[in-house]
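// run 5 | inverse folding | seed 20
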């Protein structure tokens, strides 16, 4: 997480390489623990390269299925070991496929997402 020096009011935010490496390691660890993963990626400012102090990490996860409603799924994913705060969106495979037929979010996401895990079917 970002740290503040004892003698300064300035926050030191992790470099992008640190964040990206942490996401890749988190993805590998998560994939090894779960058999229902379809894909994991990040999007937003870290994927576009316009991150800055205070930027969070936007994660998107696709799973085979879930018995939890969309609003509750993120709570099942511990992203606290990542060096910056993370917003986690968890879609089922069916929801993900449906999302591709709706609005502008999906095309934008697919254009800028960096996939750290994609299951080989």
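// decoded
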């Amino acid at each position: 997480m970002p740290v503040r020096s004892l003698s300064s009011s300035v926050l030191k935010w992790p470099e992008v390489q640190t964040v990206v490496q942490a996401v890749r390691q988190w993805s590998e660890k998560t994939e090894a623990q779960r058999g229902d993963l379809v894909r994991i990626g990040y999007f937003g400012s870290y994927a576009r390269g316009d991150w800055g102090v205070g930027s969070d990490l936007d994660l998107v996860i696709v799973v085979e299925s879930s018995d939890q409603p969309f609003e509750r799924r993120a709570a099942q994913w511990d992203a606290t070991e990542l060096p910056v705060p993370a917003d986690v969106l968890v879609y089922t495979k069916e929801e993900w496929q449906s999302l591709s037929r709706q609005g502008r979010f999906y095309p934008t996401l697919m254009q800028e997402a960096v996939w750290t895990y994609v299951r080989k079917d």
